[in-house]
Amino acid sequence: MLIGYYFKLAWISLKKTPLLSALMIGTIAMGIAATMITSTVSIMMAKDPLPEKSERTFSVRLSSWSPDKAYQISRGEEVIPPMLTYMDTMNLLEEAKGQRQTAVVMYKNMVRSESQTDKEAKMLRVNSVNNDFFDMFNVPFLYGSPWSDLEDKEGAALVVLDKQTNDRLFSGANSVGQHILIGKHLARIVGVLDSWSPLPQVFHGRQHAHSLPFPIFTPFQFQINNNLLSKGEMSWQCWAPLDDSSLETFLASECVWIRYWVELSSAAQRSDYMDHINAYVEQQKGSGRFARENLSKVFNIKESLKEDKIVEEDDFIAVWLAFAFLVACLLNCMGLMLIKFYGKGAEVGLRRAVGASKQHIAIQFGCETVLIGTIGGFLGLALAQLGLRLTADIFAHLPEGLMQMTLPLVIMTVVLAVVSSTVFGLWPIYRAAQIQPSAQLKSL
Amino acid sequence: MKDLKPILSTIWRSKSAPLLLILQIAVTFTILVNAVYLIIQKEALLIEPSGLDEEVIFTLHTNVQSSEAEEMIALVKQDLRDVRALPSVENVTVMNSFPLSDWGSYAPTGLGPSEEDMNIYTGYFTGDEHAIATMGLELIAGEGPSEGEVQDSIDFSADATQTVVSKGFAELYYPDDWRAILGTTVYLNYEPFIVKGVVKDLKSVWPGWYSHANTVLVPLRHISSNYKMLIRSRPGELEQAKQQVAKALMKTPGRHLDKMMDYQQIRADKFKSETAAIKTLYWVIVGLVLLTLLGIFGQARFTVVKRRKQIGTRRALGASRTDILRYCMAENAIVTSVGIVVGVICALLANVQLVNHFDMAPVPVVYLFQVAGVILIVGQLAVCQPAWMAARVSPALATRSV
After folding, report:
1. Whether residues A283 and A413 fall in one domain
2. Residues A259 and A403 in one domain
3. Residue A313: its chain B contacts at CB < 8 A?
């Protein structure tokens, strides 16, 4: 096979000028590694946490702010609060117009098993959610199941533990039916999760987006019934002063503090759901609420990632920089190839003189470029893995295992190396093929 | 500069290799300028002082084991007394949140009670009569609250009628004479407050926020089932103080301590993504400089190999080694400079894109000069060895046929 012969020639040629070959391969590897490291980091930071239904799962936002002032103005446009009031949450939960709906709030409390003493209790963050939450976000259960609709409404003292907490408190045994203490409230365990680390975590907004999920889950109504709000830790905002600090006043106020998520049976129902939300706002306007222009919106998961700034702009700057870096590397490599092929003018002249066509020359050097690209690509892949180890140190605040290259990314790395180096090799190849046999032979 | 003409005509005759180097340098320059600028912007955020004596301060969250208002207040006051009595502790206060921590409050603020007057949000801190001394704030006008003026605030109910403000806040409303704010009434959350004092510097919880320097410190003893304490240790005794405080508080059964952090930890926590970004950018810069070095080195070296015969001829015709050395260096300097000029244009264009897409400030011209200088030096360094190689080409080479 002639191609095989050309690759052999290319290999010999690479070995002939080891320094130059090393420089070429090294620059390609560096560029590829940098690009792939930053791409991996930013893809992992911004990846869709719920790809199979991100188009039909929505964060609901209502235009319920002060009649006199916008919640926020960003780039000249009014921004509405990302959270809802308790009144609206309860009304929307009651109407239940989506396939699934849930409130999401965080609180903190002391948690211990019945057998542990007070001193062994740990301060844990708790996800306060409705039972639909688990199906909506595809939360995997190891034992048991979510609490029932009725228990959800009543706010029964029930709890779902994550795997680590179950391992810690019950040594990983099936603990369903046992009890734990949340503060002074005895709660029965109804379920234990399997390992679950949705990243980014979209449902709490930006603050907790890149941390691991909170370890335990209790019914939203349970939090309300027992006044378990952590006002010094959770997000809450008011536009009018509260008369007193009681829970009743807070619940009846226009303060926003609940994130509200809804899953529809299809993305096509979005406009129907919006009609419903708008109708709700109109109805509330009738009773004197929602004095602002109605800007209520729903954001699907990808839109929420952007809206809540979970996808950081810095990540894109890094990718942008890395691609520019790759271009610099390729330009460098292209210059080196030009020199290399130029240096082989005599050889080209000789081959042309004994009958090789321009195409033959082009294919020969093409093979050499592909070889360089391939070696550079694999070396780049190795460098990228090494780099990702280092990045894992740099990004030590993010959960472990986030910075891993998936198979498609690995394949993409090598393909990118070969394709880009070949594209950037075209011109040097073209130049080499243009060499006139006579001019070169004369000087020999 | 007698070399200038032959250099230019050489470049002109074989354009492709220098052209590529020019392009490469232009791209490198573009990235470098923007990366350096990003780093400097982020580092400015990292080192901005909070106004506190950070090296002697730590904070913690702890629980109050009661839900009755009177009892809660009594328990918190007892905790504060216990902590203050410790030998390594200089002072202690209870606050609603701490500068640079992960949670904070803000309040709409204005000089009048109406909505139109409430034109700005400011950072809202509460603290007791020890707050200013514990944080180590410099009171530059007026006075702080006395013990009797501090109200107890259970679960964010607020009753204060006076406040201390930061100088930034005062300058916001009285830009010509910030002292004029003393004794006047400002409105926070639509309620009137009399300004009793001004502190030199107290930053909000959110660095980079438009109102970061504008804060108020309201005399409230903020108490909830989980309250926050800020402790000032005696100089150099931060670690002892942490241990003593933990030990003293843990004497109460059922006590829980959370987030015991000194300011070094608070800062590290607050800026972790910025720190990660800065480190990444440093790697980008190192990679780029290395790449430029290698690129220029490789090209120069092979140009020299290619030109051995010409160099030999020049040497035979009387050129000294210094002449050859100077020629190589000058050639590189010219190519690099052209690359930088193209790079300046690209960098400015790229920066416009960055400004548009990522809300960044435009890059100051001084960075362009600095980065240009660095690239020129890197280029000259890279060309040293090949130039030296060229200078050592023997004149006898010209006499041989190949």
Report:
1. no
2. no
3. 357-359
